Amino acid sequence: MSKSLTGPRARRYRHTKIVATLGPASATPDRIRALFEAGADVFRLNFSHGTHADHGARIAMIRTSEREMGRPIAIMADLQGPKLRVGAFADGAVDLMPGQSFRLDLSTTPGDATRVHLPHPEIFSALEPGAELLLDDGKVRLKVLSHGADWAETEILSGTRLSDRKGVNVPSVALPVSALTPKDRRDLTFALDRGVDWIALSFVQRSEDVGEALDLINGRAALLSKLEKPQAIDDLEAIIARSDGVMVARGDLGVEMPPEDVPCIQKRIVAAARRAGKPVIVATQMLESMISAPTPTRAEASDVATALFDGADAVMLSAETAAGAHPVAAVSMMERIARRIEADPLYRSLVDAQYTEPNQTASDAITAAARQVAETLNAAAIVTYTTTGSTTQRASRERPAVPILCLTASESVARRMVLSYGVHAIRAPDLRTLTDMVAMARSQALAYGFAVPGQHLVLTAGVPFGTPGSTNILRVVSVRDPEVPGSMDPTLAIPA
User: Fold this and answer.
1) Which residues are catalytic?
2) Is 206:239 a contact under the CB 8 Å cutoff?
């Protein structure tokens, strides 16, 4: 990686991260760079759209921007997952009447106002009388009256028109469907071969879905589970435990459950992820009006603020940056909202009120103490040295009021840590001693403008260096001008 840049564009003045989706409106080198400079920390590639050639070119452009900017940038490959759809109609669309009967079956004959092809036998096998099916994002609602191995008779509850190949949601039924389709497996192999940092897994219903994906990823990227099915909420703790991070995918959640339930589910997911110390993204329709308008609605600004007040690690832009008319403005607006909310006294009060007690381990105790020491001393930053990212992730779980400088020799770890709350990841040499770490911490804190001479840094690391998961030392050092010679200043070392 090239020499690190300094100045405002080389650091963030907020803790919450921004995920921006690339698409036709944003997939050029100049636009990617502009999005990064506006505040994007993670770039999402949506494998529901585009070809491997498209995504490969975007990955190359991101890595070029990364070298030019001198900072790690994370890339997320979002797998499509199984897409359940009805077939085609003879006339392209049909008019429906609430109360009428409507049949779903495996016949490939073009549909009409009385029936349509549903090419998913697994749905028929899982249905029960009384179950609801939602078509076209819930615009058409059906109730199952009876069913067999290859058909279902339903009653139309609401909706007046249905056209070709609209999506199908089955909110009340756990479907015997793998979260990974053959297309997903091909996309996964492609993404891993090109070194993406995060894999987002769609259609997660149970923790076993996560295990299947982890086996295929085999440590080559971090796994983020998208929580968009009501069944996933029933297995929430187990899914979070097996995942490296989670996403509150409110689009499908809002289709499959009543809208009034989604805010409560969002808070529940964010709180559970925070307890587990796993990054959590809040996504979908955050600044939706900016797809066409240069500014968001006040309700959208409040929606982003709610995610921040809940303590989410990141907020995400989808169509706003992928296909919208104002992609850079959308990121800039998200940046402005995040900085304003984090500067409000109520923000820190709410984040602290949701504090989770550390686990009874030496590593967690040291990390919790680092947060307390940093606040007591009004330190400039907490500095972690990590091999696998676990030391830094523990610090992020504490939600400190000061930035977290993550020093790591691993390029992949630095990129993955970009998603975590408050973390500024820095590639560093393979440090061998605490003295080396102290010198590197001082120089990087000064170079990036996190500290000025006379301020304190709080350091955590695992000794001996290079031992994964062994956070066992805390040290306080003062920052001094590197041009001024002299012996090492007084420090406080607290070994576990």
Assistant:
1) 44, 85, 226, 284
2) yes
